[in-house]
User: Fold this.
Amino acid sequence: MGGYTHPVAALHQFAREPNVVDLRRIAAWELDPLLLAETVEWEGRLDWDYSRSADLVRKFTSTGSLAGAALVEAGTVVGYGYTVVEDNKGLIGDLYVQPQLRGTRAEAKLFVALTQELLNSPQVRRLESQLLLVERATALAAERDCGFRLYERTLMTAGVDRLRNLTAAPGLPHGKLGRTLERSGGDCHHSGLPRPRGFGGE
Assistant:
């Protein structure tokens, strides 16, 4: 009989699943192809220049001072994420995997690994993360496995001409717009990106 039976195929797939390793074991040059791909994707999907953030990840990875985790498959880094602890707050600053791993068990494992790393910090009382390229299924899996509550937000886009006509929501100070949600291009993303003090010149 040719081919795999279903149980054998499942075991074969499990054996090929990327390993989760400490980000501090990853050299900056190993991460570079992934950072380049992420920068291109941010520009194409989100119209956002991610190059400065990518340079900071390279800088801190090269010194081994950036906490987090990476997905490694056959010696190649196929995903990564970093964490920052600020007072009693834990931040997942970024999580990015190759497109073919989106919404998979591997991406969920990486998300859970980053979450558990922060939960293991005794001073952390609150977790925050705003991840624009993480699949909703992955976030829901982490919510289920780690026992936290997920608050979803979407990224809004508008042309300059439309922005000129926006007015403040009722009851808000002049010039401040209310937070509203809409879908852009059919994709649901979190809006914004954590920028902890000391990481990014702020």
Q: What stands out?
A: Residues 1-15, 175-202 have pLDDT under 50 and may be disordered. DSSP finds six helices and five strands in the chain.
